[in-house]
Specification:
Elements lengths: L9 H10 L11 E4 L4 E4 L2 E3 L2 E5 L9 H10 L4 E5 L2 H4 L14 H11 L2 E5 L30 H18 L10 E5 L12 H15 L4 E7 L2 H7 L5 E5 L6 H11 L6 E6 L15 H13 L3 E8 L10 E2 L3 E2 L18 H13 L17 E10 L4 H4 L4 E4 L14 E7 L4 E8 L5 E2 L1 E6 L2 E7 L5 E6 L4 E7 L15 E2 L4 E2 L2 E2 L3 E5 L2 H7 L1 H9 L12 E7 L12 E4 L6 E5 L2 E6 L9 E3 L10 E7 L12 E7 L26
Parallel strand pairs: 4-5, 4-11, 5-6, 6-7, 7-8, 8-9, 9-10, 10-11
Antiparallel strand pairs: 1-2, 2-3, 12-13, 14-27, 14-33, 15-26, 16-22, 16-26, 17-21, 17-24, 18-23, 19-20, 19-22, 24-25, 27-32, 28-31, 28-33, 29-30, 29-32
Helix pairs in contact: 2-4, 5-6, 9-10
Length: 659
């Protein structure tokens, strides 16, 4: 029977013992910077780390051990991970460190396996993560200046760090834990504020909680201009740069800020990120191997970003400026795939590392098995607008002008704005957002009839038709907040007024939608069972829900297994399996076509439920209960786009994005 990655069977235990996976912590430890010899020293001995990035927030806890063991067997002696503030404090003052958010268990596991940890504690992390890891509720005061010495911002930072830093202190290397270094902020030299008082405040706060022994560092682009505002005395300055350039010259930028000490590339890019509507980024393994070999030949320290990218499940993806949201997959063309499988790049990187240090004995753990469960029928249920009473737990809010997500105290997902037409629009009347205030995508309906889509930076005006008094519904999708540069102050919803024939629309009814809660509670299923015969016909272009069930096949050993969900004929939407929010799908725009489905969310003992929210066009007709299908396949499709401009012109250089 297949052994779950979260537990160790007897064969794996033997393998661990034979390969010396588990390293007992020393009775006391020291990790320091040796400025005289341009190196780190661990327990008094010269030390160089070869690290890889993995984000615990993007890998289910069920698979943490599997991924970390594969990283260890690649020859890494350290991993690097971010702490996303908004992942742990989604609501002000309520902290969650359980389940997939159990940072302490992740750190314990790293220590058991023998991997040191470079912890990037924030408060800002970027990471192509919603709002760069900062909680959206910080924007409740519109004038707040994020990542600065603004007292309103610092008050919340201080409160958060008073929670986080005491949790990580026991895991410092000096306390027999795995953490050898802690990053303060992230790529601050690329931010407009250039506020040294802010960095000094963080330095004092980190030292207060973590003590004077721990190595604190910063990371910035490999250019003097970035290090000017990103570095500070008392924080060791490191740089990040990708493959294919002049390695020695890139490290010269670090020497501008740190004339002596170890050379460190904190983000050596093994691949690159994707955006909806752009080609899938692929970086050749030969290019990666050559530059990695050059870095290691210089005896420099390196962290490969990413070693496994993982998945931005739910609503956690970020976006870049001008507004380009990132897809659900964070595969990154990394050595370990989104599903944690060793790739050709993995073995190429492992071979390079083997030239510079002794690799662990024993075999590399194989890819996790995948299974194609096939086509699963889903039935159309009801439109979003007709399901408001089930989806909105707080009820309607009346407002003269539109309210943003933050003003409604909703931070992710979807909201519904409702109004009535104040005039006849028989000839097609322009509904407009003159100030580009649709953040980010609006699905417009009049009396339940689809009118069109407004999209941030792309479509600010559509023509609508209807009679005076007709119901105007606008379903507003938050597609992820900007995670880099000055645009992180990213308000969502209708952030400015809409006009109808140049007249400002007023007197809105606004619904905060908690679709995740409705799905998890089973309320949508109850709605279908109770009222399916009386439901109105749902036009295929109107945002609507589709429900389906399936059973894991009997008689096949080692199920459930990982799989991928494909959407043949579908356009754009969100999908849940057994209440778990897999994320957004958008095969019509690409490049991602399939969604990764980890095995642990599937059940062999009960029926599995699929809920699909299709926002545009489903492949079935407009009849009530029309049957559509989604398909489980055993391999991913991440490169489905061919008609869009390649994004590689900015590869390896985040600093080139607009601030």
């Amino acid at each position: 029977m297949q052994q779950a990655p979260g537990s160790m069977g007897p064969n794996l235990l033997l393998l661990l013992a034979a390969s010396s996976y588990l390293i007992s912590p020393s009775l006391s430890g020291s990790f320091q910077i040796d400025y005289n010899n341009d190196c780190f020293r661990k327990d008094g001995k010269k030390f160089r780390y070869i690290s890889g990035s993995i984000h615990y927030s993007r890998v289910p806890r069920y698979y943490w051990k599997d991924r970390l063991l594969k990283m260890y067997m690649a020859g890494l002696n350290a991993i690097q991970t971010y702490v996303p503030w908004n992942y742990h404090e989604t609501i002000p003052g309520k902290y969650d460190f359980t389940g997939d958010r159990d940072l302490e268990s992740f750190l314990k596991l790293c220590n058991e396996i023998g991997l040191l940890v470079i912890l990037r504690a924030g408060p800002y992390i970027c990471a192509e993560w919603d709002m760069g890891g900062l909680p959206a509720w910080l924007l409740q005061k519109k004038s707040i200046v994020l990542r600065s010495s603004d007292p309103d911002y610092l008050r919340f930072v201080h409160k958060w760090m008073d929670v986080l830093l005491p949790k990580i202190k026991p895991f410092l290397y000096q306390n027999n834990g795995p953490i050898i270094a802690v990053q303060v902020e992230n790529e601050y030299g690329s931010y407009f504020a250039c506020d040294y008082d802010y960095l000094r405040y963080l330095l004092k706060l980190f030292r207060y909680h973590l003590g004077d022994e721990v190595v604190l560092f910063t990371t910035d682009g490999a250019g003097k201009g970035y290090l000017k505002c990103g570095s500070l005395q008392g924080l060791y300055a490191t740089v990040d740069f990708g493959p294919g350039g002049n390695t020695s010259k890139s490290f010269e930028a670090q020497r501008y800020a740190e004339p002596h000490g170890p050379m460190v590339n904190s983000e050596f890019y093994t691949g690159w990120l994707d955006h909806w509507g752009k080609k899938h980024s692929v970086i050749k393994k030969e290019v990666i191997a050559k530059s990695l070999d050059e870095i290691l030949a210089l005896e420099a320290n390196v962290n490969m970003y990413m070693f496994e990218g993982g998945t931005s499940f739910g609503y956690w993806n970020g976006a870049n400026s001008p507004y380009w949201p990132q897809p659900t997959s964070y595969d990154f063309d990394a050595p370990l795939s989104e599903a944690g499988d060793p790739t050709d790049k993995y073995f190429s990187v492992r071979q390079v590392i083997g030239k510079h240090k002794t690799l662990p004995a024993g075999p590399v753990l194989p890819a996790t098995p995948k299974y194609a469960y096939g086509l699963i029928q889903v039935k159309k249920l009801q439109s979003v607008t007709d399901s408001v009473n089930v989806l909105s737990f707080s009820g309607p809010v009346e407002s003269v002008y539109p309210l943003t997500f933050v003003e409604m105290k909703q931070y992710f997902g979807y909201m519904l704005y409702r109004n009535t037409l104040p005039m006849n629009c028989t000839e097609g009347t322009p509904l407009a957002s003159p100030q580009n205030g649709v953040h980010d995508r609006a699905y417009v309906m009049v009396d339940g009839v689809f009118q069109g889509i407004m999209e941030r930076n792309k479509v600010n005006t559509i023509n609508i038709t209807g009679q005076t008094g007709s119901r105007l519904d606008i379903l507003l999708e938050n597609m992820g907040r900007i995670n880099y540069g000055g645009g992180i102050h990213d308000f969502k919803g209708l952030v400015t007024n809409l006009t109808l024939a140049s007249n400002i629309l007023t007197n809105w009814t606004i619904y905060s939608l908690n679709i995740d809660k409705a799905v998890a509670s089973g309320n949508l299923n109850k709605l279908q069972r109770k009222t399916s015969e009386a439901l109105p016909e749902v036009n295929a272009s109107v945002p609507a829900f589709y429900l389906g069930t399936f059973k894991i096949p009997n008689g096949i050993p080692d199920l459930p297994q990982d799989t991928y969900l494909k959407f043949p004929g579908w356009t754009k939407g969100q999908v849940w399996i057994n209440g778990f929010n897999l994320g957004r799908y958008w095969p019509a725009r690409g490049p991602q076509v399939t969604l990764y489905v980890p095995a642990h969310i599937l059940s062999t003992s009960a029926v599995n439920n699929i809920t699909v929210l299709e926002l545009e066009n489903a492949p079935c007709g407009i009849e009530l209960n029309a049957v559509c299908a989604v398909e489980f396949v055993d391999s991913p499709i991440l490169n489905g786009t061919t008609a869009y401009t390649n994004f590689h012109s900015r590869a390896f250089n985040k600093q080139s994005w607009h601030e």
